[in-house]
Structures are given as structure tokens and as C-alpha cells.
Design brief:
single chain, 899 residues, alpha/beta, six-stranded parallel sheet, 35 helices, 10% strand, elongated, binds thiamine diphosphate, binds magnesium ion
């Protein structure tokens, strides 16, 4: 195994020879400088490879602290007082979870995570994290299930009451409860970033740090004093998202970013790397990606032992001990440690012979030593040129006593017996009487106590208490009329809604008020969407500018990277793009600066690829636009099964604060975007927009009068029924009436079906455009609920039933999405309502073939209408059956859902 390779370093069998080699190197550096020394080192390494001298990966160092004792800085705090504060916070964090579970079995919570991380947070709170009372400060991503510790600290500060702590995980009573984890949606004045879906925190933090630089480099905000801190678990590092952004952080030199990975060697079920060494593995990964790595492994009690370890035997033992063994040492007493850690080698045994078994038990891991943690944070904040990761060794459940500490069950522990609590109290030396222990009472030393005065002073000096989320952004004006006037006029030239959007985005970027706030986010598909002109016009953001001459520099629209570039061209990472969306979409709160992100993505790789992040965006109260381009299972026709998106609108419809639209025309799209900007940035609503864009070209009609409200609510009448009464040989008889509904590209098919029905079958159908079934459903649910709760009042009629009432004939809805989309409103429509859609796996073919296959082309829409007319008695069944035949529809065709 890789760490075994350290073995060959030790012991030093010829120290004199070693000194000679080192002296030579010293001499070269002194006489000829570092460059020459580096040259020689590289030569030596090459020669060693040629001679088959195996070397460990040079991305890994020995299993000791990166910062040696003599390099540790002066600790500016009152260590004794901070120790007492930490103990109080520890106690209350535990009391809160115990009390909640004593009263409501199964309500849950975590004891062990914060217990292992308490010092990591306390050093940050007392000495590093910048508050945001006057101006935006640091952005801290707290490890989700360490939340009890943050509440306990806020309690000590006087920001939370006992009653609020007693409402941990009981949020239903408005304003009373504390969220299980960081949820800005539920505690908008406290939490800033949702982190508990593991892996999303690290990714978000990286893109947050990058976005801070983006704002700075574009001259929108001076973010040079702000840092991003992310507190993460070692188990969490297994998530692909945790590591996904490492290289971009290094590439862009994000020295405003600090990761603190709490390596307690355990995750939920057991050890993170029982058979290996997670800290070493992570060191290699991060260093390989270009990060500055600081390891905090051992507490100060080891310093003396390491200083006396002249033969390197102790370090070798540290290198070779597995994480599973270290976990065992954490729960075993000094005698066991003496025998199994120091014992196998007589020289090591001798090294600790002056220490008692108790002393050996008290040899702490580095993450519980305040000074070591302080030294690491100080070094991290002083470091320039690259992001820093601090890998901290701790014990999970530290201080919680032998039943919990470092046990495999520790993650799920949420109860302590009275006896265990007593041990805990004694360890923390808190004046809580035995008689009260059974209630696990909170402990507060009083508002005037030295502890409270100290943390207040510290937070004041650092700019205000944390965690805190503050919104003090001014509303933005509406887009100027030039932004969307042209779309109301329509266009004779055939264009797609994607092309219309590109133009709209360009107009927005040119809007003098809003232009600088627009953040186009694109995961390597700008050309697909026709957005590459933006590259030249506003530039692609690149932290270092453009250091090469682009291959297309002689073209008018060349590839232009710039330090103040506006486009976030993310490369092929939808997850990274979502993280950028979150950073930009929450900038109104985290930077007091409202930014308007438009994230334009390949439809299929949006909600189903990164749905968890979209959910978190809703939680974070993110504002912005998600533009799902190349949408529609048949409209994107050549790409086939994995690309053809026919269901994202259903996935989106589950997000409570989303406003999802599938516009058919440029004017609909423009109205939706205007509404979005006004709603989110003018009125400050915490909603966000999902808008699908299609790539089928057709001429765009002019906007009919008075449709704006209908577009925004999700439905309006687009075309009246043709006047057919008395025509088509029907004498003076009234023509059968029907209503057709469609959205997106498929509205074209619906309009064609209207003509087909009129011309071939004398059916007079109206056509409705339904840009948002999701919002129609939402409105109908609200009306239903009101009616349910107010039986004595006049019932409210949902908007969809107002527009599509009982009269007017059967209704057929067709979209490029699964039938479940139009079905969202079926409950409020007449029984004759029929949904047509693209259920089943997509495939590649021409649009015509696909639409015929999925039964959403004009003949199928017409056939469905005729069938509905016959079912409700407006047409003889035989006539309907014959008509289906005339339309060329095969009634026995295979169901596309089944293949
Ligand atoms: C995406 C995701 N999967 C699973 C979980 C459930 N979960 C919560 S904490 C945890 C273990 C965390 O271990 P680690 O990251 O090492 O944190 P520690 O508590 O040890 O500091 C798990 C599996 C989650 N929150 N998010
Ligand atoms: Mg862990």
C-alpha cells in the first residue's frame, strides 16, 4: 500500500552520510540559488527512477503535523476562557438533542459530529470568521449535522432562547423552531447555505469563492477581504461532487477558499478508511489537484515525543498505523496504547516510559488542540496563490464518554444515560447539580459572565455574530422597454425560442441598469444554443485573462477570454454550473448585490442530472433563471434516447417555489423573463424560474392584446374557433366544437390540427396556449384548499377552470412532454379531457416521424379530438372510427410507452 512506502525512509542507518547530502544541497542553494537546486533535485529524481529507486508519491508527506511546533504563531486569545466557552457550547449542543429526544422519541439529531469538531468551529468564531453586520463578510459552509453546536453558541450569545433550543427539529409552529440542518428556507435570518446533502457544500463553496473573484474582477464588488470556509466530513469526501471542483479551485488560484476536513476517521456505519489512511489519501488528492495542504494530526502532547524521536521510529509507527487501528486506540486505555502502539518496538516503548497510562490516554489528536488548529487557520489565511485544505485529525464523539466516543455507533447516538451525562458533566466541569441531570438542563453562565462578554467582544471585533443571513439589497428596476419590444411584434422569419432567447439575453446585457448584473452560465453548449456571439461581445470570464492568441482571432466572432469577462463558460460540468447558479442567485444576500443569473443547459442534463442541487437552490432562496435548452422529446430529434428530454417539467413541478414555463412563442418567453425579473429583483420574491427553450424554427406571431396575464398564469386563448356553422354540408347545423391546448413547439402541431379538424371534419376548435401547467395546478390547489377550509363561503374557481369551463366541447392537450404534464390540471377540467404526450424512451429520427410515433402530430391530435367528440355524443362513433382511418392513424400501432 502507498503508505507502506514510507518504510524505506527509516531508520537512518548512516546519519553522517545523510548530513553530507543535506549540506551539499544547502551549499548549492546558498551559492547558486534555488533554481539550480531545483534543477539538481529534478535530475536526481529522474536518475532515481532510472535506477528503479521507488519513491512514495511526492504529493504525500509523513503522517505528522505540517506545521512544526517552532513554526506555530503566537496565540492571541485567552485559551483558558475559550476552553470554558467551548465546554458550555458542547454541553448545550448535547442537552438540546437529548431533551428533544427525551420528549419526542425519534425526533433525531446528532451528538458526535459537533463533539468532534467543536474546537474547529470555536477557533473560527473567536479568531477568523468575518461577520456581516456592516458589510458582507466571510461565507461559512457549516457541516450540516454539526448544526446543534451552532445553535448552542447562538444561545450562549443570547441570540436564541431556551424555548427555541427546546424547539430543535420542531419547526411546524411558525417562527419557533430550529431546523435540523442548515436551511435558509426555514431560518432565513440564520442559515445562508444548505449543506446537509453531502457533497453539495464543498462544490458550492468552491464556486462561491470563484464567484467572489468574478464579482471582484468585473469591478462589481471588492471581495478581496472575504473568505469562504467550508467545514466538511471525511466520509463526505467520498461523494463525487466533493472532489469535482478541486481542480478549478487550484487553476483559478482561489486563495480566498479554505476547506476544513474533519478527519474523525468515521462516517455513519464505520471507519472511512479502516484499512488505509484517509488523511494521507486526501493529502495526495488535494495536493495533486494543486491545493495547499495543512495536516493537523497530533496535539501538543506529542511534540516532545516527536522531538525526541531522533531515529524516526515514532513517525514510522504513525505512518504505518491504519485508521482502523487509530480508532481502536481512541477507545482503548493507556495500557493498550503502550502495548500495541509503542509496544512492538523496545525503543518506542522506552520513548514513553516516563508517561503513565493516563498520560498516554490523554495524548490528543490535533483537532482537539486549540493552538494547533489556530496555527493551521493562520497559515491558511496567510497563504496566497492557491486554496488551502486543512486535514484535521479528531475523535468522533470526543468528550462524550466511553460508550459513544469513537464507537461505530457514535454517529447515530442521540441519547446518553444519566450516568453517562454525569461523566460528561464532570469532564466539562460544569456546575450542574446531580439532581437536575435527568432533565439535561441547559447551562448559561449569565449575560454578564466573562464567557459571554468574551465571545461578544470577539464577534464584535470580527464584524458581527454568525451564522447570520442578512438581506439588505435594493430592488432593481424593470427591464427597459427596448429589451423586449421587438418580441411583441413577432417575426416572419422562422426562428426558434432558443434564438429568441439569445437575442433577449443580448438585449438584457445592453440594458444600462440591468446589463452588468446579468450572469450567463453555460456548460459548454453556447454554440449549440447560438450564444457564441456573447464570447466576443462580453467575454468569457477567465481569472488570468487570455494568455494565448485564439485560433479564430481573425474572425469577427472570436473566442475571447477576459479577466472581466461576463460569461461563465463552465466547461462540461452541470454540477459546477448549478453551483455557480447558486453563488450568483444568492448574491443578493451574500454580497448585498442582486445578480441575475441565466443558466442555460442541455435540457436533459438539468433536473435529472443535478436535481438535488436544484432543490438546494430552492432552499437557499436562490433567485435566477434556469433555461432548459434543446427541450422536448421530439423537438430535439436526432440525438436520441439519452438526450431527448420529455420529463424535466414533471421533475421541476415538485419544487415548491419554482415557476416553470414551456413558452411557444418569443413574446411568451419575453413576458415570462420580464415577469421573473420584476418578481425576483423588483419585489424580492424568493422564487426562481425554469423556462424551456426549443430549437425548432417557425415564424413568431405578434403578441395578441391582453394576453400578458394569461401567459404568466399559465394559460390563455390563442386562436378562436373557425366560423364553420352551416358549412361543410352540415346545412344550418352547428359545427361540433372542441378545444385544443398546447405548449412549446407542439403548439405548432396543435394549430395544424385545428386546421385539419376544420377542413376535413368540420370541427370548430379553439386553440389555447398553456405556457405553465405547473402554475395552473398550483393555483387550482390553492383554490381547492381554500374551498375545503371554507365550506360556508362561495367556492373559488381555479383559473384553469375559468378559462376552460364546462362548455365549449372536449379538450385535448398536447405537449412535447409526458402526459403527466397536462394531467397536472385534469382534476379541474371536464371528464372528456385528453392528454397527449411523449411517454416512453426517446429515439432519433426526424421530428415528423417522432411526433407520429409519440402520437402528438396533427393527425393524432385530430383523431383524439374526434374520439372525444364521439365519446361525449357530438359525433357518431362510427364516424370517429372512420375519421381515424382517413387520418392515416393506425389504431393498433404499438404503444410508444411499451418499447
Ligand atoms: C448525500 C447524502 N447522503 C447521505 C447522507 C446521510 N448522512 C448524514 S451524515 C452521514 C455520515 C457523515 O460522515 P462524515 O462526512 O465523516 O461526517 P462526520 O459526522 O464524521 O463528521 C451520512 C451518511 C446525507 N446527509 N447526504
Ligand atoms: Mg467523519
Amino acid at each position: 500500500m502507498y503508505f507502506d512506502e514510507f518504510k524505506h525512509q527509516l531508520p537512518d542507518i548512516d546519519p553522517q552520510e545523510t548530513d553530507e547530502w543535506l549540506a551539499s544541497l544547502d551549499q548549492v542553494v546558498e551559492d547558486e540559488g534555488e533554481n539550480r537546486a531545483r534543477f539538481l533535485m529534478f535530475k536526481l529524481l529522474k536518475r532515481a527512477r532510472q535506477l528503479h529507486v521507488g519513491l512514495p508519491p511526492l504529493t504525500q508527506t509523513r503522517y505528522i503535523n505540517t506545521i512544526s511546533p517552532e513554526q506555530e504563531p503566537f496565540f492571541p486569545g485567552d485559551e483558558e476562557l475559550e476552553h470554558r466557552i467551548r465546554r458550555i457550547v458542547r454541553w448545550n449542543a448535547v442537552a438540546m438533542v437529548l431533551r428533544a429526544n427525551n420528549r419526542f422519541t425519534g425526533i433525531g439529531g446528532h451528538l458526535a459530529t459537533y463533539a468532534s469538531a467543536a474546537s474547529l468551529y470555536e477557533v473560527g468564531f473567536n479568531h477568523f470568521f468575518k461577520g456581516k453586520d456592516e458589510k458582507p463578510g466571510d461565507q461559512v459552509y457549516y457541516q450540516g449535522h454539526a448544526a446543534p453546536g451552532m445553535y448552542a453558541r447562538a444561545f450562549l450569545e443570547g441570540r436564541l432562547s431556551e424555548d427555541q433550543l427546546d424547539h430543535f427539529r420542531r419547526e411546524v409552529e411558525p417562527g419557533a423552531g430550529l431546523s435540523s440542518y442548515p436551511h435558509p428556507r426555514l431560518m432565513p435570518d440564520f442559515w445562508e447555505f444548505p449543506t446537509v446533502s453531502m457533497g453539495l457544500g464543498p462544490l458550492s463553496a468552491i464556486y462561491q469563492a470563484r464567484f467572489n473573484r468574478y464579482l471582484h474582477n468585473r469591478g462589481l464588488r471588492d471581495t478581496s477581504e472575504q473568505r469562504v470556509w467550508a467545514f466538511l466530513g471525511d466520509g463526505e469526501m467520498d461523494e463525487p461532487e466533493s472532489l469535482a471542483g478541486l481542480s478549478i479551485a487550484a487553476r483559478e488560484g482561489l486563495d480566498n477558499l479554505i476547506f476544513v476536513v474533519n478527519c474523525n476517521l468515521q462516517r455513519l456505519d464505520g471507519p472511512v478508511r479502516g484499512n488505509g489512511k484517509i488523511i494521507q489519501e486526501l493529502e495526495g488528492l488535494y495536493r495533486g489537484a494543486g491545493w495547499n495542504v495543512i495536516k493537523v494530526i497530533w496535539g501538543r502532547e506529542w511534540d516532545d515525543l516527536l522531538a525526541r524521536d531522533v531515529d524516526g521510529l515514532l513517525v514510522e509507527q504513525m505512518n504505518n498505523t491504519l485508521d482502523g487501528e487509530f480508532q481502536k486506540f481512541s477507545v482503548s486505555g493507556g495500557a493498550y496504547i503502550r502495548e500495541h502502539f509503542f509496544g512492538p518496538d523496545a525503543r518506542l516503548r522506552k520513548l514513553v516510559e516516563h508517561l503513565s497510562d493516563d498520560d498516554l490516554t490523554r495524548l490528543r489528536r490535533g483537532g482537539h488542540d486549540y493552538r494547533k488548529v489556530y496555527a493551521a487557520y493562520k497559515a491558511a489565511t496567510d497563504y496566497t496563490g492557491a486554496p488551502t485544505v486543512i486535514l484535521v485529525h479528531t475523535v468522533k464523539g470526543w468528550t462524550l464518554g466511553p460508550g459513544v466516543e469513537a464507537r461505530n455507533i457514535t454517529h447515530q447516538a442521540k441519547k446518553l444515560s444519566e450516568a453517562e451525562l454525569k461523566v460528561f458533566r464532570d469532564r466539562l466541569e460544569l456546575p450542574i447539580p446531580d439532581a437536575k441531570l435527568k432533565d439535561a438542563p441547559y447551562y448559561h453562565p449569565g449575560p454578564d459572565s466573562p464567557e459571554v462578554a468574551y465571545i461578544r467582544e470577539r464577534r464584535q471585533a470580527l464584524g458581527g455574530q454568525l451564522p447570520k443571513r442578512i438581506v439588505r439589497v435594493a430592488p432593481l428596476p424593470s427591464p427597459a422597454s427596448q429589451v423586449d419590444a421587438e418580441f411583441a411584434a413577432g417575426s416572419q422569419i422562422a426562428v426558434s425560442t432558443t434564438m429568441a432567447f439569445t437575442r433577449l439575453l443580448r438585449n438584457l446585457i445592453r440594458d444600462p441598469n440591468l446589463g452588468p448584473r446579468i450572469v450567463p452560465i453555460i456548460p459548454d453548449e453556447a454554440r449549440t444554443f447560438g450564444m457564441d456571439p456573447l464570447f466576443k461581445e462580453v467575454g468569457i470570464y477567465a481569472a488570468v485573462g487570455q494568455r494565448y492568441e485564439p485560433v479564430d482571432s481573425d474572425l469577427v466572432l472570436s473566442y475571447r477570454e477576459a479577466k472581466d469577462g461576463q460569461v461563465l463558460e463552465e466547461g462540461i460540468t452541470e454540477a459546477g454550473s448549478m453551483a455557480s447558479l447558486q453563488a450568483a442567485g444568492t448574491s443578493y444576500a451574500s454580497h448585498d448585490l442582486a445578480m441575475i443569473p441565466f443558466y442555460i443547459f442541455y435540457s436533459m442534463f438539468g433536473f435529472q442530472r443535478t436535481g438535488d442541487q436544484v432543490w438546494a437552490f430552492g432552499d437557499a432562496r436562490g433567485r435566477g433563471f434556469m433555461m432548459g435548452a434543446t427541450a422536448g422529446r421530439t423537438t430535439l430529434h436526432g440525438e436520441g434516447l439519452q438526450h431527448d428530454d420529455g420529463h424535466s417539467h414533471i421533475l421541476a413541478s415538485n419544487i415548491p417555489n419554482i415557476r416553470a414555463y414551456d413558452p411557444a412563442f418569443a413574446y411568451e418567453l419575453a413576458a415570462v423573463v420580464r415577469d421573473g425579473i420584476e418578481r425576483m429583483y423588483g419585489h424580492g420574491e424568493d422564487v426562481f424560474y425554469y423556462v424551456t427553450l426549443h430549437n425548432e424554427n417557425y415564424s413568431m406571431p405578434a403578441k395578441p392584446d391582453g394576453v400578458d396575464d394569461g401567459i404568466i398564469r399559465g394559460l390563455y386563448r390563442l386562436a378562436e374557433a373557425p366560423a364553420l356553422d352551416g358549412k361543410n354540408g352540415a346545412g344550418k347545423a352547428k359545427a361540433p366544437r372542441a378545444r385544443l391546448v398546447g405548449s412549446g413547439s407542439i403548439l405548432q402541431q396543435v394549430l395544424a390540427a385545428q386546421s385539419l379538424l376544420a377542413e376535413q371534419f368540420g370541427v370548430a376548435a379553439e386553440v389555447y396556449s398553456a405556457p405553465s401547467f405547473q402554475l395552473l395546478r398550483r393555483d387550482a390547489l390553492e383554490a381547492d384548499r381554500w374551498n375545503r377550509l371554507h365550506p360556508a363561503d362561495e367556492p373559488r374557481v381555479p383559473y384553469v377552470s375559468q378559462v376552460l369551463g364546462p362548455d365549449g366541447g372536449p379538450i385535448v392537450a398536447a405537449t412535447d412532454w409526458v402526459k403527466a404534464l397536462p394531467d397536472l390540471v385534469s382534476r379541474w377540467l371536464p371528464d372528456s379531457y385528453i392528454s397527449l404526450g411523449t411517454d416512453g424512451f426517446g429515439r432519433s429520427d426526424t421530428r415528423e416521424a417522432l411526433r407520429s410515433f409519440f402520437e402528438i402530430d396533427p393527425p393524432q391530435i385530430a383523431a383524439a379530438t374526434l374520439a372525444a367528440l364521439s365519446r361525449c355524443g357530438s359525433l357518431p362513433a362510427k364516424r370517429a372510427a372512420a375519421a381515424i382511418n382517413e387520418l392515416g392513424v393506425d389504431p393498433d400501432k404499438t404503444d410508444p410507452l411499451s418499447v
